[in-house]
Automatic annotation (TrEMBL):
It is an enzyme of class 2 (transferase). GO terms for molecular function: adenine binding; adenine phosphoribosyltransferase activity; AMP binding. It comes from the Eukaryota. Homodimer. HAMAP family: Aden_phosphoribosyltr. This is adenine phosphoribosyltransferase. Residues 35-157 form the Phosphoribosyltransferase domain. Catalyzes a salvage reaction resulting in the formation of AMP, that is energically less costly than de novo synthesis. GO terms for cellular component: cytoplasm.
Amino acid sequence: MTELSEIQSVLKAALRQYKDFPTPGVLFEDIMPIFRSPKTFQMLIDALKIHIESSKEKPDVIVGLDARGFLFGPTLALQLGLPFVPVRKKGKLPGETYEARYIKEYGEDDFVMQKDAIAKGQKVIIVDDIIATGGSAAAAGSLVEQAGGITIEYVFLLELLFLKGREVLKAPIYTLLGDQA
């Protein structure tokens, strides 16, 4: 078994940064190279699975945010033997949905989740790639609350501490790769 610090080093080395994308002044953290290597992708899933399995409170559902939370959320849910629930941008899911608006670092948007996706009282872990301002994660938490679920943790690959996103979230936060400048 590879040490967590080794996994973190491999994952951090796989990241790429792009200045002024998608708008001037934004440093975009690109996680896509992680998925080009099956070994690196498996390390990501293993590290997150170990964290979740070692937590005292066990989830019933994994929720992933559109779009980069979809890259590893379903695989993580499958490895844990749990259902996966997508949180999508408005207009992307059929049927009755809950809706939550959020402000992000370069605009605002609406998230939706199907009303029958989470049962009342189910414990939920929300996963996404990066926590920045926390707006999209907080919106996902609102959707879980609207459904009657309980967010027990937010799980991210990395955090942009200077944007103070954790201050708007109502549950504990785990960040696999720590903070980025």
